[in-house]
Structure prediction request, 369 residues.
Amino acid sequence: MSLDAQTPVGDPLPEGPPKDAPIEFSEAQLLAEPEFDEPLIAGGVRCHGGFIDGEYVSPRTLVRMPAIDAWQSRLRLEGPGVVDISREFMPPHYPSLEQAKLLLRAGVQKPITRSLTMISIVEGFGAMIRDVPVPDLRAAIKEDLAGTALSHLTAGLFEAHARDEAGHRDQGGHKQMWEAARDLAFDNPRVPGDVLARLMQGRGRNRRPPLFPTLPEKVEGLIATMANVMVIEIFADDVFSWGEALLGDPEVSAAAEAASRMVSYIRADERPHVEYLRTALSEVRCRTLLTIDGGEIPGREVVDAILAQQLRGIASSRPREQREALHEEIRADIAEMRLSSELMRKFTALDDGWTFPRSEDDPIEIALS
Prediction:
């Protein structure tokens, strides 16, 4: 099954399944591969996915995508719909496309190489989702979970996600694919030695207290983790647009077509991640959570509050801090250049000044599709 990389992340899947489509799957089924005509080779590494009739097809989608489609169709028939994130909350990638092109045209490649390398490393961190503690949800949720994405988190969905991001065994994943796109575009650039140290700055933030102290800690933790990853994955769509456009520009890219295509393959692979997380959170949202003191909390109340908190954290203070840090890094990178102050002035003038569109007092309504 081919995924259209241009389909907007978060929109409904194109076609609904038959009414009698199965909704229970084994782990082996959710990890099953299509039969590829040829493999994807990225930077000399055999990566996941491959080509059928010349079109790229994402890995582990033979059953996984029809399964997500079936679960979402059931949600739309029986409930209010599937949670989504309004694009107004999506912070633009920094540096912007025009800022990045300005630097590259001036011969300043180091900040963009660093940025692309950081993206590849973060993708590799995605494998940690297989280690997320998943409690016994049948004991934590009042209603039946048969035939849901929730009942398949540890039966293939988390594992498929982890393999997509970091690769599996002798196959590379998104980490290697981003590295290949970078190396194609910039002709195997020298990677700055400070990438990992800069990436780790700001990590290990103070843990937030629970929003719902009467819920089992692992239940709120699982919902918060899925919400966090879903928001990050949806916001990453802007990174893909940026990467495809920048690395696909022959003015600044040594292998524009090949580098841009590589990013489009990653973009296609991310779609099932967004969709199964949207589905699982929506299934929690239309159910009832059981508290440790014998009470009940509507799932909608929990999911909406956690999503709102994640949105504020990921799209408000964090982008501002990252932009300020990157601004100083770029200033340092060009300090020795002739006319560096003029280049920095032009760079700063291209900043769109995006800010989160809600104040702390404004409620955030969770969209449904």
